[in-house]
Amino acid sequence: DLLRLLLEGNYEYQDKTLDFSNTIIRINRYQQYKIGYQHLIDSPKRDLRINAAISYLNGNHHMSYIINKGTIYTAPLGSSIDVNYDMQSLVTDTSDNSLFIGNGKGFAIDLGFMYTNHDNIFHFSIIDLGYIHWNKESIVATADSNFSFSGIELNSLEEILDYNDSITEFDIESSYDSNNKKFLSPVPAKITVAYLKKLNRKYGFTNINTMLQYRWQPYEIKEPLS
Which of 65, 129, 197, 201 could lock onto 208 through a cystine, CB 3.0 to 4.6 A? Predict the structure, then answer.
């Protein structure tokens, strides 16, 4: 529903409630410098390939909005609009958004194994498992707001020409809490488990491949990592 609102506006949703609860908006920008090592243990019938890497992460900017509850109701003809949301935001310092500015730093690791035994290949890997620790200038905030706009009624040309914000009616109930403090944000990690079986056929299917891939990136880490 949030995409509908952003792309289409609310005209087509009069007398309807758009619900964008449980929506996460997240933007990350960082540089990654990685160094790795690969080792092969070889034998006539089987071999094991091991690889590992470590990355240094230079964090530029992070912005995330965790909308636990959010709705917007548009009355017929737009006579009133009601917005209700409960949201948490984590935003790094925006005073300098140049490309290589360092608002945070962190580390990530890679670890992988590939075992080959005759016609069977087993693979397991974890790529970019890590996080960025953003500095104390970051803003961590929570907001719980109920906003109602009652519309504008103009009955004459004079009222249109003399329109000003003072005749606009708003009803706002809001609580907002903001603090400057450090926080952690994980980078997207990729975890893969795969199995490949070679069939040694000249025609038809030559192998069977099964793979399970998982993306791990929590929205927030509230406690220090141990």
Answer: 197
**Residue pair 85/143 in contact by the 8 Å Cβ criterion:** yes
Q: Provide the 10 A C-beta neighbour count for residue 108.
A: 22
| C-alpha dist (Å) from residue 58 to 87, 105, 106, 219 | 27, 5, 7, 19
pLDDT mean for each 10 residues of the chain (226 residues): 88 91 91 96 89 96 91 88 90 73 91 93 96 90 85 65 57 81 92 92 84 89 59
**CA–CA dist 181, 60 (Å, integer):** 16
Among 113, 16, 151, which residue's Cα sits nearest to residue 74?
16
| Structure token pair of residue 78 | 């737009």
Residues 6+ apart with CB under 8 A from 91: 62, 63, 64, 138, 139, 141
Tell me the three state secondary structure of residue 136: coil
Exposure string of 49-81, with b = 16+ CB inside 10 Å and e = fewer, is: beeebebebbbbbbbbbbbeebebbbeeeeeee
pTM: 0.74
